[in-house]
Write a structure and sequence with these properties.
Elements (H helix, E strand, L loop, with lengths): L2 H44 L7 H30 L7 H35 L5 H6 L3 H11 L1 H21 L13 H20 L18 H6 L3 H13 L13 H12 L15 E3 L11 E7 L17 H7 L3 E7 L5 H10 L22 H6 L4 E6 L8 H7 L4 E3 L10 E2 L2 E2 L1 H18 L3 E6 L24 H20 L7 E7 L17 E7 L6 E8 L3 H8 L4 E3 L16 E6 L2 E6 L2 E5 L6 E6 L4 E4 L4 H19 L12 H14 L1
Parallel strand pairs: 2-8, 2-9, 3-11, 4-5, 4-8
Antiparallel strand pairs: 1-12, 3-10, 6-7, 9-10, 13-14, 14-15, 15-16, 16-17
Length: 680
């Protein structure tokens, strides 16, 4: 054999050796690409009406390849770092091949699982799995009940994928050793290591630009779901987990502004006198004064938080004819026709209604660690005034960390599913709304007899997937029975039954009621922030409350200061919302809305939208058509919008929203002074 032939054979064996080293990684990447590409193609076919052009389709798949490659390279990177330094033979080599094979199979299983879960998640949230997916994993019982009740087919298909994929992946990644293969020497390993690691690092980074690839890099559409199609769900969730770890400081996403300017803009928007602000260290802490008003003052407060009740389902707000009871109640109280939720989840609604806190890109303060104690809530303010404070819920109080947050911040009692005796109906999310309101009525009667003022948050749950409710209670709006519209009609029926009892009760004359939704159901659409899906009902009702319809724009964060005013309580607090009772008829109104990581600040018909790592964008909103159109950016409005987008993160991290003791009423001050004098 010639020396040239020997040299060629040696080169081939070296190449065979290199191929054997990189073979499992190549198989992994090809298999993973097959999973994500097929999934993306299926999603595109399903949501094809959301793609406006062939260019959109090209962007989805082109960016998709880059995001996928980045995801896969991150997964294989630690294994690549080790593989090139494993001996050519022996026990260590065999053990490493088994471990590597298991690692790569696990990666394919995770990718397959996430893609199989994606259609169900999109059906519910109109986005790929994100931080909500992770948060719901904390509650397997409720989630599994919801899936089994409403998504049996999807659950079955997902289970089949998870059973078949590990077996297939294990087979694909079976090592193949060439009989005449010569292992790589250490110099060859070092050279191969440098070259392969360079390409893996480049693939993971996804770009040669200053910043590595991220979701904002692939955003090209005003439709958030279309932008999400460029991602894969493993990447989307992983990015959300990393963001959760950092608690997402808004200043890292939105335009920069120094803190002094943020405080100044927010305080100016509060429309208060300078002498009302009471702390240099806590910029929004102020004394809320009682305005002269012809409105009645109430002793007790009950907030009925209705699950997923968007304005589009409320007849009196131009929605479906499935809320006759609420429509009737709306003629007896103060109805807010243009009230907007701050977010798309229950904890975001609780955050706004109970604490008056603005939405941030991070999780709701209901779940964040620094807000579990000494964080301002209506309950903490009213407890300081001698109120009994309670949370009444039909499900398990620990869901979404509600009980922990409430009990750490002014609520004395949590009444949940464990406290119901012989409930009429139990579904996946707990006792039915009828049971909930019967329990609330019993609690209020007992408290009224004790003569102590009370505040209670009553949170409904029947209008939640899989829409389980006692079907004999109502005439169904549609078939099949377990639909959102039927569930809403049942929830409305239960609400009406409660108010029939309340009007005959001993506590009716002394109690102010607020009926408000936490958010709309399934917020979705092609807009950067689909404003029409943030509109919710809000109704103040009680004995003596004038009947009127208010067409001004309000936010959920305006409700808490207004409730304090109607209770006749002056307090010192950090809330930035408006006391609606003090506003004149020409008040322009504003609302703040968080949609994934986009935030909108709407003032009148002008909307400033902040997106991660992009300049602010101004749009005009037509409420009659729910259409957004481009508008010229107003620098004054932009500054105000940016300040409000940044304020929440600053306030949370610096403890600027700590609970403050309520300022005593004149009568209480006199009583305290008398007691102190007597003691002296």
């Amino acid at each position: 054999m010639s020396s040239l032939s020997i040299q060629n054979q040696s080169t081939m064996t070296r190449l065979d050796g290199l191929k054997q080293v990189i073979r499992p990684f190549v198989i992994f990447i090809l298999a993973a690409f097959a999973i994500t590409t097929l999934s993306r193609a299926g999603l595109v076919l399903w949501q094809n009406e959301r793609l406006l052009s062939l260019s959109d389709l090209w962007h989805v798949f082109l960016f998709g390849v880059r995001i996928d490659l980045s995801s896969f390279c991150y997964w294989i990177a630690p294994a690549v770092l080790i593989t090139f330094f494993i001996p050519n033979q022996g026990r260590i080599k065999n053990s490493w091949e088994l471990l590597l094979r298991s690692w790569l199979v696990l990666g394919l299983v995770i990718i397959g699982f996430m893609e199989s879960a994606t259609p169900t998640f999109i059906s519910e949230y109109d986005l790929r799995p994100n931080r909500l997916f992770v948060e719901y994993l904390e509650f397997p019982k409720e989630v599994l009940s919801m899936l089994w009740g409403g998504y049996k087919l999807e659950l079955l298909l997902g289970t089949l994928v998870m059973l078949l994929l590990p077996r297939l992946a294990w087979h694909w990644l079976k090592p193949k050793s060439a009989p005449q293969q010569r292992g790589l020497n250490w110099l060859e390993r070092l050279v191969g290591f440098v070259v392969i690691v360079f390409f893996v690092a480049l693939g993971a980074r996804g770009t040669l630009q200053h910043r590595p690839i991220n979701p904002s890099f692939t955003s090209f559409s005003s439709d958030q779901l279309v932008n999400n199609l460029t991602l894969n769900s493993t990447y989307s969730v992983a990015f959300a987990i990393r963001a959760m770890r950092d608690e997402i400081d808004a200043s890292n996403l939105y335009p920069r502004m120094n803190e002094k300017s943020v405080f100044s803009e927010v305080r100016q928007a509060m429309q208060l006198r300078q002498d009302q602000f009471t702390s240099a260290e806590r910029p929004t802490l102020h004394h809320q004064e009682l305005a002269t008003s012809t409105l009645p003052r109430y002793k007790n407060l009950v907030i009925v938080l209705e699950e997923s009740l968007g304005a589009r389902f409320v007849g009196t707000l131009g929605g479906l004819p499935i809320t006759p009871e609420l429509d009737k109640l709306a003629t007896e109280g103060w109805l807010f026709e243009r009230l907007y939720a701050t977010g798309t989840r229950s904890v975001r609604g609780i955050e706004a209604v109970i604490t008056g806190f603005v939405p941030t890109p991070a999780r709701s303060v209901v779940k964040l660690p620094r807000s579990q104690n000494n964080f301002f809530t209506l309950a903490s303010a009213l407890k300081a005034q001698g109120y009994d404070t309670s949370f009444i819920y039909g499900g398990e109080g620990h869901f979404d960390n509600m009980a922990g947050f409430f009990l750490g911040n002014g609520f004395e009692r949590v009444v949940d599913q464990r406290d119901y005796e012989n409930p009429k109906f139990i579904g996946s999310w707990g006792a039915s709304d009828e049971d909930l309101f019967n329990k609330a009525d019993q609690e209020f009667e007992q408290l009224q007899q004790q003569g102590k003022p009370f505040f209670s948050l009553v949170f409904s749950s029947s209008n939640h997937t899989p829409y389980e409710f006692p079907q004999d209670a109502i005439s169904l709006y549609e078939q099949p029975p377990q639909t959102r519209n039927n569930a809403i009609k049942y929830a409305d029926y239960a609400l009406g039954q409660f108010f029939q009892k309340a009007k005959q009760s001993n506590y009716w004359d002394d109690t102010l009621f607020l009926i408000v939704a936490d958010h709309d159901a399934r917020v979705h659409g092609s807009d950067l922030v689909p404003i029409k899906h943030f509109r919710i009902p809000g109704l103040l009702i009680g004995k003596g409350m004038p009947s009127k319809r208010d067409a001004r724009i309000f936010s959920q964060i305006d409700l808490a200061p207004t409730l304090l005013a109607l209770l006749g309580i002056e307090t010192e607090h950090p809330m930035i919302g408006q006391d609606i009772t003090t506003l004149d008829a020409n008040y322009q109104g504003r609302a703040i809305m968080q949609y994934d990581q986009n935030q909108a600040y709407m003032q009148g018909d002008q909307v400033v939208v902040m997106q991660p790592n992009k300049p602010a964008l101004q749009l005009s909103y037509d409420p009659s058509t729910s259409q957004l159109s481009p508008s010229t950016l107003d620098p004054v409005l932009e500054k105000c919008a940016v300040a409000h987008a940044l304020w929440g993160s600053i306030a949370y991290k610096k403890g600027l929203y700590a609970s403050a003791a309520a300022v005593q009423t004149p009568a209480q001050t006199a009583q305290t002074s008398h007691s102190e004098t007597k003691h002296l």
